[in-house]
Amino acid sequence: MSKSPLASLRPLLELLADGELHSGESLGAALGVSRAAVWKQLHKLEQLGLPVESEKGRGYRLQGGLDLLSPDEILSRMSASGKSLLGELQVLEQVDSTNARVLECMDAGTGHGLVMLAEQQTAGRGRRGRQWLSPFAAGITLSIGWQFQGGVQLLEGLSLAVGVALARALDRFDVPDVRLKWPNDVWCQGRKLAGVLLELSGDLTDRCGVVVGVGLNVGLPEELGQSIGQPWIDLTSVRPGVIRNQLTAAMLEELLAVLDEYPRSGFGAYRAAWSRLDQFAGREVTVHTGPREWHGFNRGVDESGALLLEIDGELRRFHGGEVSLRGRELGQ
Predict the structure, then answer these.
(1) How many whole angstroms separate alpha carbon 69 and alpha carbon 53?
(2) Is 184 within any annotated ligand binding site?
(3) Domain boundaries in the chain?
């Protein structure tokens, strides 16, 4: 993997992460470079969308500071049992897509237990070919590789169980009104907070791998959020002050436990918890599959995680993939 252009800027980012003013002279002394070299690095930060503020005669600062991810900080907040399930933890400054990179490792047979996080994705992806926006240090984007023995049928409902794991992690920080939207979204106060993307690798009839990708909005700039095609929310607006390293550790604890347990329990162990969090339980909804759409009432999910839609008094099952769901009365 080629080295990110942001990697060389990490020492400067750590100095400016406190949001305080730092003189060019003090930055140069700390980094062991000239003031001219400092200025060039500051200019690179601005080109990458990080707002550097300067005050004449006083110095430079990053507006609002930065809450940087740190492997050591994340690991220090994980339990021994959680860390025992973790194969390798990588935190990158910038990458095209964490899912794509972990999927490459899975295809090469080396990605089981690999967790990859990135401060910024340049080609983050969501379901149905959509783009996932991930500006620098404004969210949590992570991917986990996991091997399963027994074929893809073992993975039925896994994306819903992942949603339960994320809701449990958010509950540790008292994030209010967290709900799940079938099949892959985490909502908060009626808007999308996080998304899940599962991608498969290997022999789907026997030993196969899955990459669990998660993107969670922490402090998404309003101007970027305007391009999202549905109501959205970020964590800072509902629960400010949550440290990203702490939340990441909680997410990994819950996600790794689900992945470890899932071959033995399947979706049945998570169905009741998912149903309690169903954003559209009992409500009239529309299900889209490509150009077609069905209208009916959401009657929950079955033992495999399929959506149960009541249409003219009869239940119809919808599985994951190219199915989306919108609450009709909200126009969502």
Answers:
(1) 22
(2) no
(3) 7-62, 71-276, 280-327
126 marked among binding-site residues: yes
The two three-digit tokens of residue 301, written as one number: 């999910």
What does the alpha-carbon distance between residue 142 and residue 225 come to, in Å, rounded to a whole number? 20
Burial of 58 (0-12, 13-18, 19+ CB in 10 A): exposed
Indicate which residue of 191, 192, 244, 271 is catalytic. 192
Only one residue has tokens 């909680």, namely 250
Residues 20-33: what's their mean pLDDT? 95
Cβ count near 244 (within 10 Å): 24
- Out of 127, 179, 181, 271, pick the active-site residue: 127
Kindly tell me the sign of the dihedral angle through the C-alpha atoms of 191, 213, 270, 319: positive
pLDDT tens string 97-117: 999 999 999 999 899 999 999
Residue 127 falls in the annotated catalytic set: yes
Among residues 35, 77, 83, 326, the one annotated as catalytic is 326
> How many residues are there in the chain?
332
169 within 8 A of 214, measured Cβ to Cβ: no
CATH 3.40.50.720 assigned to 7-62:
no
Q: Determine which helix (DSSP H) or strand (DSSP E) holds 308, and give its type and residue range.
A: strand 307-311
CB 186 within 8 A of CB 164: no
pTM: 0.90
Taking the CA atoms of the chain, what radius of gyration do you get in angstroms? 21
326 is catalytic: yes
Distance CA 189, CA 88 (A): 34
- Is 125 annotated for ligand binding? yes
The residues facing 309 across adjacent strands are 298, 316
CATH number of 280-327: 2.30.30.100
Indicate if the pLDDT at residue 152 is higher than 50: yes
Q: Is 121 annotated as a binding residue?
A: yes
Is 128 labelled a binding residue? no
Task: Tell me the C-alpha distance between 255 and 243, whole Å.
Answer: 18
CATH of domain 71-276: 3.30.930.10
Rounded to 5 degrees, φ, ψ at 160 are -70, -40
Q: Are strands 88-95 and 114-121 parallel, antiparallel or unpaired?
A: parallel
127 is in an annotated binding site: yes
Backbone angles phi, psi at 75, to 5 degrees: -65, -35
